Amino acid sequence: MAGSLAQLLDLLRHHGATRIYAKRLAPNDNSKNQVYLGGDFSALNIIPHGEIYSDDTEVARAVRDRAKASVDFYWVNGDGLHHAPNTGLILYPKYPEVRMSGFLLGCKAAPSDIMRVRDEGRVLFFGITRTGSVVGYAVSGDDPVARELVAREWPMIGVFLELPLSLDDARDPREQLLDELRRIYRLNWIASQKLAADGTKAPYAARNGGGYTLEAELGVTPNGYAEPDYLGWEVKQYGVRDFLSFKAKSPVTLMTPEPTGGIYRTEGVDAFMRRFGYPDQSGKADRINFGGRYDCQRKHHLLTGLRMTLTGYDEITGKITDLDGELVLISDRDEVAATWSFKGMMAHWNRKHAQAAYVPSLFRTPPPEYCYGPEVLLCEETDFLMFLQSFARGQVYYDPAIKLVNASTMTPEIKRRSQFRVSHNDLTVLYRRSEKVSL
């Protein structure tokens, strides 16, 4: 067992934690009443979880509509890791709030003496690993680790205290990120590159190398895990024309989910394109395109006849009224062309958006090189409700670029690209806190 906070951080890091948080437990935070994780959905951006699904049990219907998501959770002690297979998050959209439950069930090594009681001063620690599992550790209020924790101030994200990976480095993750971005800014022009799985840097010639080059300098290997890039921060570069105005060349792509319903899914992309697409406007032969901007404030698109609507969300209260709500692309004849379910969109939004750093870049060639700017935008604290609010207002929009190539042949080629974007100037509406920082 950990005798100090430093030992606990070392223990969590030894078991794969790349981010560490703590939650001071209130008397109601126990196995009977669940552990409260905040009065919004922001905890979903902190705690990795599985697919979100409706809880249609009798108990759930009696309480109120709610959804669940499993968590790959392990308690840690001196004997190692112990899986708590029934751990999950519970979403109550009508409050709204998120709670954690099931963390004792099925795990004999779980700290039941701490998590079943209502004692003041208890602390629950979360170690988030790169593979999306969570390592938990709980202490009572009189434990030396708890006393050491409350004796110092820590940065907060929602209800969570954000802790460093080691007390040997007094800088918090935000300061460490800024120090790295400052170092990269001072490098001036950097050859376009991409970090390989073995950690070596390889030249990268394609024009989309700005993000890869920045990640390579940060030591971030591209992977498929639902994990932010650097110490809990998602780091995104964006191209600019100069470092005076910092005006972005293009909108920010937030996520790229495929539709989960509508003709796009029931009849297939080919049928969708032939019904709602249009001939390539630049004259490319035998090609059908589907593009344009679709948001909740615009009328039907002139070329496709489609418009975007939102169901299951109350813009006035800012709450979800139906967990089965959707973003809906609909025709002027009320045909449902494509839909995106709230549950599916939540899963995409929760991947990396708790903390984000937006870094401007310049590009030149030959050879392809990038230079990263002296001012970065840091954005913190968001949740899916903020995304829905911005979408309802038309600030976030659907901006597809889908193509059907060789459309008249026996083997047409479909190129999918569904993306949700926002103007760089509107980015801050998606976060509770934002700050421009000069390097």
TrEMBL record:
Pfam families: MvaI_BcnI. InterPro entries: MvaI_BcnI, MvaI_BcnI_cat. Keywords: Endonuclease, Hydrolase, Nuclease. Gene3D superfamilies: MvaI/BcnI restriction endonuclease, catalytic domain. Residues 179-431 form the MvaI/BcnI restriction endonuclease domain. GO terms for molecular function: endonuclease activity. The keyword Nuclease applies. This is MvaI/BcnI family restriction endonuclease. The lineage of its organism: Bacteria, Pseudomonadati, Pseudomonadota, Alphaproteobacteria, Sphingomonadales.
